[in-house]
Specification:
globular, about 350 residues, mainly alpha
């Protein structure tokens, strides 16, 4: 893909990350002041959910495009290259987010701030900020955990299972060795059998697949794409396990229809003719880091604001602005290193191929 054709993906990724940040700022600092069921709660909640759906659509589109490029470049599916690319992309921002989460819990507990020792952190976390050693280990394995202190990580764990499924399917279909094909089938089977651990998995898997479908040349024809999209809508609406993202089949149906519209928009070429502000274009460069790392920063800001005054609107506004600015600044400064997949991949390759000291 050339730069002009990927422009729409950068913009969509950046906007989605910023929307999630704003929605979580509202959830942390404003919902408790306006009460449950307010228009602010409804608008920010739906905005965040739609932003997450955009992430899954983009993931399906780009991961399948990456797999296709891998096969085209090598004549077969290079599983090691795929795995290294995923590790290089996912782990640096994840490790940064985990460090922030550990730091947030440590600060709150050392200074006995709201959220420590099981005390409520406002309406954001009724049980406070906490995690276990087991959660930390599962998080580092990209499997589960630490979602109390860093809520957005739950979507990352679902995405990883989809990466495993897609990579396993590619290994099974395009590897040369029969043993490798068995390994690929095992990957797919593992992802399917463990999917039930995330009650939203099949809903997001369908959204991810809808994004993947947009890679098909035939998808550019409405008469091909629209029937597939209609089938996706009916499937998501009919299956109870698919329709719980907004706690109702109707809410899920609205989302899936929106996903179809967004997915079809990805196929349009006139995006390259649009002119976006530089700040919006650049937001795509640090979107992943911002998405996985902002929540612990907001949690600390909320804890400090509650310690000062739990009912003051002025304190809440100042804390919200400072916390959001800190999250943005950390992501902006850290992303050039954390999201430099090419450099991280080269470092991993050198480390994996280096001769051990004992063999020298």
């Amino acid at each position: 893909m050339d730069h002009k054709n990927t422009l729409r993906f950068d913009v969509a990724r950046g906007v989605a990350a910023l929307v999630v940040l704003v929605a979580h700022v509202a959830q942390a600092f404003a919902w408790r002041l306006y009460g449950g069921g307010s228009w602010l709660e409804m608008m920010s909640g739906w905005a965040a959910r739609f932003a997450v759906l955009i992430f899954f659509l983009l993931s399906g589109r780009l991961i399948v495009a990456s797999i296709a490029s891998n096969i085209s470049r090598n004549g077969y599916f290079d599983a090691s290259g795929y795995i290294l690319s995923r590790i290089a992309r996912l782990y640096p921002p994840l490790l940064f987010a985990v460090a922030l989460a550990v730091g947030a819990v440590t600060i709150v507990h050392i200074f006995d701030l709201p959220g420590a020792n099981g005390t409520p952190l406002g309406d954001l976390r009724a049980s406070g900020l906490h995690f276990t050693a087991g959660e930390l280990m599962r998080s580092l394995l990209l499997y589960n955990g630490m979602t109390v202190v860093d809520g957005p990580l739950w979507t990352l764990y679902i995405e990883v299972k989809l990466y495993v499924s897609a990579g396993g399917a590619a290994i099974f279909a395009f590897s040369r060795a029969p043993v490798a094909r068995l390994v690929g089938a095992a990957f797919v089977l593992f992802a399917v059998l463990t999917a039930g651990e995330h009650y939203r998995f099949w809903f997001f898997a369908s959204v991810w697949c809808l994004g993947a479908i947009t890679n098909l040349p035939a998808a550019h024809k409405a008469k091909i794409f629209l029937p597939i999209a209609a089938a996706a809508i009916l499937l998501c609406y009919a299956a109870p396990t698919f329709s719980d993202y907004i706690d109702s089949p109707r809410g899920s149906l609205v989302q899936v229809i929106s996903c179809v519209a967004i997915a079809y928009a990805f196929l349009l070429r006139n995006w390259a003719e649009l002119h976006f502000p530089d700040w919006l274009l650049k937001s795509g460069d640090f979107s992943y880091t911002l998405y996985v790392s902002h929540f612990p920063v907001l949690a600390v800001g909320l804890s400090l604001s509650l310690q000062i005054d739990q009912t003051s609107v002025v304190v809440a506004v100042i804390a919200a602005l400072c916390s959001a600015a800190a999250a943005l600044l950390l992501a902006f400064i850290g992303a050039p290193l954390l999201e430099n997949t090419a450099v991280t991949k080269r470092i991993l390759k050198r480390w994996l191929t280096a001769e051990p000291s004992w063999a020298a």
